[in-house]
Amino acid sequence: MNITEHNLPRANAAITSVTPIVFVVDDDASARESLASLIRSAGWHPNLLSSAQQFLALPRIHAPCCLLLDVDLPDLSGLDLQQRVSDRTDMPIIFIADRADISTTVKAMKAGAVEFLIKPFRDDVMRNAMQGAIERSRAVLRQEAGISGLRERYAALSPREREVMELVLSGWLNKQVAAKLGITEITVKVHRGTMMRKLGADSFLELLKVAMRLRLMSVTRTEGSAARPLDTQSAWQSRSRRASHAVAPAGLYFPNAVTT
Fold it and tell me: How does residue 12 score in pLDDT terms, banded at 50, 70 and 90?
């Protein structure tokens, strides 16, 4: 099983099939209506607002979306609103402005805006910008769905399975894990097999990928290597070579982990 394409067909189908929403925050009513017409013609749903505060009052949605944001607003400025929603990586921002301003454009783009368009703009330019932003949004939502699934799988591990996972990823052999935890080697193999199945990992490389995607990292690889038994480090290096081009995590953080 390839965990980078984890079993999330229903989530991916929902992300692809749901109608994208395009938020428009502009205090110019005629500009809002013009953009709404363009958005509908592309098959998307417009949500029109005249101020940043109106937008902030909306509940957060879990659907492909983007934000068309005017720079000059009556309450919070467009740049201020961009800062307020900087954690919403699933909602790319396209700035629109009445005039070109290099300083404002640079600030917006550095803060993550995907486009900065000056009025009047051609319909095809805006449509392409929105299409690109919506595709970005879908990609982020798919990634978040995959991570959410992995977190659920990790949460389903028993405390003992997490201990075994930590030691296995640190390069310990089954017999060394057994000695460390005070259990038999057969029991270690059972816990290890169950842990691998729960995480959907068919190999040591897949397990590494799970750990890296979950960001179970805290210490440096050098510190981690120093903590491992000397006769295990060569086994770790051998596994790393067999892992092709994969990069082993620098260190691992496991809640309630065992200590060496």
Answer: low
How many CB atoms sit inside 10 A of residue 152's CB?
Answer: 10
Residue with tokens 């894990």: 177
Alpha carbons 237 and 16: distance in angstroms, whole number: 42
Do 8 and 136 fall within a single domain?
Answer: yes
**Residue for token digits 């995607």?**
213
* Residues 165 and 71 grouped into a single domain: no
Could you list the residue range(s) of the whole structural domain that residue 169 is in? 156-242
| Residue 255 within any structural domain of the chain | no
Taking the CA atoms of the chain, what radius of gyration do you get in angstroms?
25
Residue 44 and residue 93 in one domain:
yes
Compute the distance between CA of residue 96 and CA of residue 231 in angstroms, rounded to an integer: 62
| 136 and 224 together in one domain | no
Q: What is the pLDDT of residues 188-220, one digit of tens each?
A: 999 999 999 999 999 999 999 888 888 875 433
CA-closest candidate to residue 34, choices 82, 64, 6, 68: 68
Q: What angle do CA 234, 235, 240 make, to 5 degrees?
A: 95
For the purposes of burial, counting CB atoms within 10 Å of the CB of 190, is it exposed (0-12), middle (13-18) or buried (19 or more)? middle
68 assigned to some structural domain: yes
Amino acid at site 175: K
State both tokens at 236: 């770790």
